[in-house]
Amino acid sequence: MATIIVDVMLKPEILDPQGQAVAAALPRLGFTFATSIRQGKRFEITVAGEPTAAQLAEVEEAAEKLLSNPVIETFVVRVEK
Amino acid sequence: MRIGVVTFPGSLDDSSALRAITLAGGEAVPLFHASDDLKEVQAVVLPGGFSYGDYLRCGAISRFAPIMSSIIVAAEHGFPVLGICNGFQILTESHLLPGALIRNQDLHFICTDQPVTVENVNTPWTNGYAKGQRIVIPIKNGEGSFQASAETLAELEGEGRIVLRYADKNPNGSQNNIAGISNARGNVVGVMPHPEQAIEDLTGPSEDGLTFFTSILQSLVAR
Fold first, then answer.
1. Contacts of residue B92 in chain A, CB cutoff 8 Å?
2. What string of pLDDT tens digits covers the 223 residues of chain B?
3. What is the ipTM of this complex?
4. Which among B85, B93, B119, B143 is annotated as catalytic?
5. Can you give the residue ranges of every domain in chain B?
6. Facing residue for A66 by CB, picked from B60, B148, B173
7. What is the spatial distance between Cα B38 and Cα B30, in angstroms, rounded to a whole number?
8. CA of B100 vs chain A CAs: smallest distance (Å)
9. B215 in contact with A at a CB cutoff of 8 Å?
């Protein structure tokens, strides 16, 4: 079994009000490390055996079609060891 | 004149949209997401609500419903489609309309009677309004902030495809105060405010929304 990870993030130019709200909440807890926070989504896709190149290509396609919206988001596909 | 309204799992305003069509004098036809049968309707409304619980992204899962494959093909050939709120989100996810709708700037779910200006009256859904007419219809959404690339915005503005613009103040951070847009051909229109919730004095802030439904009936008669 292996896990394919798809990370989806809003494009840098798209406003991220959720990330901003988290960034504004941290200092109230005494955490002052962040200059900015962007919030995204992570998908963990389990496949049987080592992922094949064909499977990864399919995941790329699925990420483009459904898991992300290319108008506002970018994604990265990787295999977790 | 048969006008369909699609019910998705989680649609809320489907019955209101059906009622608005009836009140405008049309034959309202309920359509179901799991069928690809458009039941010979001459136009279709994608209603508001929270289809699939807004999971993943608003409208992202509904976009792949069997009924949508029929609607997408028909829309590309000039079939009139109106998406209201969640329906607008489904239309952008379907790439029938450009841009995207993201979380409101202040994170609030906004439910209010909203003044808007009708800017494009050359669509089958808005031809009964006067250009520049100010109307008041409700908005009720958490993810109504319209975002698009600079090129897309320039194209929408240049081609006069902004259908509705928020008047007075921008409630949610939408670029260029955009509350509704159309495709290049004008047959596909998406709006965040809810015209079907402003069709009679008893239940709405105005009767201003009814003109969306009388407009489409007029356009269909004129064909």
1. 71
2. 999 999 999 999 999 999 999 999 999 999 999 999 999 999 999 999 999 999 999 999 999 999 999 999 999 999 999 999 999 999 999 999 999 999 999 889 999 999 999 999 999 999 999 999 999 999 999 999 999 999 999 999 999 999 999 999 999 999 999 999 999 999 999 999 999 999 999 999 999 999 999 999 999 998 7
3. 0.85
4. B85
5. 2-222
6. B60
7. 9
8. 7
9. no
Instruction: Report whether pLDDT(A22) > 90.
Output: yes
Domain B2-222 has what CATH class?
A: alpha beta
Domains identified in chain A and CATH numbers: 2-80 (3.30.1280.10)
**A52 — contact with chain B (CB < 8 Å)?**
no
Query: Is B196 considered catalytic here?
Result: yes
* Inter-chain CB proximity B60 and A21 less than 8 Å: no
Residue B53 region by backbone torsions, left for phi larger than 0, else alpha for psi between -120 and 50, else beta: left
Is B85 catalytic? The answer is: yes
Nearest to A14 among B92, B102, B104 (CB): B102
Establish if A25 touches chain B: CB-CB under 8 angstroms: no
Q: How far apart are CA B66 and CA B207, in angstroms?
A: 34
Touching check for A21 and chain B: CB below 8 Å?
yes
Q: Is B194 a catalytic residue?
A: yes
